[in-house]
Amino acid sequence: MSDERFVHAWLLRLDPAWRRLDATQRRADLDAFCAAAERAERRLLQLSYSTIGLRAEGELLLWRMAERIEDVEETAAELLAAGIGRWMSPSLSMIGMTRPSQYVKRPTTQEQSLFTGERSRYLVVYPFVKSTEWYLASAEERQEVMKGHMRVGHAYPQVRQLLAYSFGLDDQEFIVAYETDDLVAFQDLVRDLRATESRRSTVRDTPIVTGIHRPLGEILGMLSGDDR
């Protein structure tokens, strides 16, 4: 089986008018959306995160991985057509691919593991763009800089990372995602990474979306004000 997978970070915004529907209609809409999500999960891996109150642009972050980009497209269409999905609009959508790193010869469990094992409480995901000067530097120079970057990352084993390659597929060059149970440690990691040489090549690393891992039904119930 190939190492390449399509990764999709999808932030959805709910039209607040939906909350003014009667309770019966809201329950039917939630059931229809959950049923569509169950069908989607037969075709791809899909994890749900609440961004309620954390980002003005949306309340539900779906973190998805598929072998085919058509599975990403077709399941997204079905979700948007089902129940509460008809009241949602994507405010952020990023696509990338997992591929072997040219800088990491033997990936540890700290890398590329955000779709396996048990989930941590928090997911932080953002687009990433590097400078032209970075790519024009020699492979040896880039490898040396990345050694320093990775050395800092390995000092925080409680933070796991996934890097998806987006160049040629989307506006950003990478999707960077971190998973952790400890946001204080994660912020310490980010602070330390900002002091490494690799920071000089960063052009853009926003917007940053922080999500709290919850079952989809629980997130939808929070949006509705109903217990599910």
Can you walk me through this structure?
With 228 residues, this protein is an alpha+beta fold. The protein has two domains: 5-97 and 213-224, Apc35880, domain 1 (Alpha-Beta Plaits, 2-Layer Sandwich); 101-210, Apc35880, domain 1 (Alpha-Beta Plaits). Helix content is 31%, strand content 32%. The protein is built from six helices and nine strands. Strands 1, 2, 3, 4, 5, 6, 7, 8 and 9 form a nine-stranded antiparallel beta sheet that branches. Helix 1 (23-40) runs antiparallel to helix 2 (69-80) and helix 1 (23-40) packs antiparallel against helix 6. The longest helix is centred in the first third of the chain and has 18 residues, at 23-40. The chain is elongated and about 60 Å long. The N and C termini lie far apart (38 Å).
Number of domains: 2
Helical fraction:
25-40%
| DSSP summary: helix tally | 6
* CATH top level assignment of the largest domain: Alpha Beta
**What Rg do the Cα atoms give?**
19 Å
Q: Spell the H/E element sequence.
A: EHEEHEEHHEEHEEH
